[in-house]
Amino acid sequence: MEYIVEIKDLSKDYETGFWRKKKVRALDGLTLNVRPGQIFGFLGGNGAGKTTTIKILMSLLFPTEGSAKILGSDISDVSMHSRIGYCPENPYFYDYLTANELLDYFGQIFGYDTAKRKQLTDELLTAVGLEEKSRSRQLRKFSKGMQQRVGLAQALVNDPEIVFLDEPMSGLDPVGRREIRELIVSLREKGKTVFMSTHILSDVEALCDEVAILRGGRLAATGSLSELLSTGNEQRAFELLIGGVASEQMRNAVSGINGAKVLTKPAGTAIEVQNESDIDAVIAAARTCGGKIISVNPVSLSLEDLFVEAKNR
Ligand SMILES: Nc1ncnc2c1ncn2[C@@H]1O[C@H](COP(=O)(O)OP(=O)(O)OP(=O)(O)O)[C@@H](O)[C@H]1O
Ligand SMILES: [Mg+2]
Predict the structure, then answer these.
(1) Ligand 1 within 6 A of CB of 11
(2) What domain count does the chain have?
(3) Which of 77, 150, 217, 278 sits CB 3.0–4.6 Å from 273 for a disulfide?
(4) Same-domain check for residues 68 and 163
């Protein structure tokens, strides 16, 4: 199977207003393919159409136009649902069940016997980092982050081949985010595919093999992170960090270098040059002032730049 998710010309109009006369186009001709075995980041600002796309893929919403396939089956074929997992943006469960009971219930839906359900419940709640003492408490007493963890555990009950996670890190504290990151990476190690929407760019940089960036319901960019971050970057700028010398003195020393930018940073004075060939001149200037070279780094386009660019395009 070349693609595990194939989205073709997908559009969605929400009908709003009195008599549902007004139409809001949330998704506009989205075409996108996802290869199996990777962590795919589905990016976009608020209202870009991420949740709408995921809900259409889960058959919770009907598309206005277009089609999509998961695991080679059309999304209208719900038998494929036994092979996929889904954690919604704001997981909401039966308030009066405990975490243990909820997972047991989902295990029953998939027809597992009591022993298997018990083992799975323990395994999954441990994997998502839900403390043992919380597992027998009612879900209505759970914090946002705890609910998010239960939502993730629930998405993995049937050992799915692909899981769709809508903002899996929302509501988690830094420790929780790290735990969930590790869980997501372990899924990839088991050969699973993870399709996750997010706008936390550091998570994307740490986790995702490929990404798609949505803007106003349209695809603004797609590809591997390294590909996307290197485009338009042929002529690279470099940043030199110089210590042990006052910024003003460095500013004067490099004033003859065309396009050199000077910035005072906590660790020293940063000098950005537009050409690799200017690096030597900056080093020479720093030496004459008695400065120490701390580092020389290429300035690469950050994911944040790319995200903002995609938003403004
Ligand atoms: N039920 C609805 N009725 C009308 N409009 C809707 C509805 N749900 C979403 N929209 C609109 O569709 C667009 C896309 O929303 P969607 O929730 O898919 O965005 P998102 O990318 O998930 O955003 P966020 O990052 O805030 O979760 C938005 O303009 C939103 O206002
Ligand atoms: Mg959303």
Answers:
(1) no
(2) 2
(3) 278
(4) yes
Residue 251's domain is classified under what CATH number? 3.30.70.100
pLDDT given for residue 201 in this prediction:
83
Q: What pTM value is reported for the model?
A: 0.83
Q: In angstroms, what is the span from residue 77 Cα to ligand 2's centroid?
A: 24
In this structure, the answer to whether residues 122 and 13 fall within a common structural domain is yes
pLDDT at residue 196, as a whole number: 97
| Cβ atoms < 10 Å from Cβ of 263 | 13
Q: 25 CA distance to ligand 1 centroid (A)?
A: 10
pLDDT in tens, 267-280: 899 999 988 889 99
Domain membership flag for residue 187? yes
What confidence tier does 170 reach under pLDDT thresholds 50, 70, 90?
confident
DSSP character string of 185-210: HHHHHTT-EEEEEE--HHHHHHH-SE
Residue closest by Cα to atom 6 of ligand 1: 14
Atom 10, ligand 1: which residue's CA is nearest? 26
Q: 193-231, pLDDT tens digit by residue? A: 999 999 888 889 889 999 999 999 999 989 998 777 765
Element (H, E) at 108: helix 99-109
Structural domain boundaries enclosing 129: 5-230
pLDDT digits (tens, 9 = 90+) for 8-30: 999 999 988 777 778 899 999 99
* 110, 147, 177, 218, 248 from 103: Cα distances, Å: 11, 12, 21, 36, 63
Ligand 1 atom at minimal distance to the Cα of residue 50: 21
The CATH number that applies at residue 177 is 3.40.50.300
**213 and 292, same structural domain?**
no
Q: Say whether both 248 and 157 belong to one domain.
A: no
Same domain, 178 and 218: yes
Q: Is the dihedral of CA 132, 135, 136, 140 positive or negative?
A: positive
Contact 51 CB / ligand 1 (< 6 Å):
yes
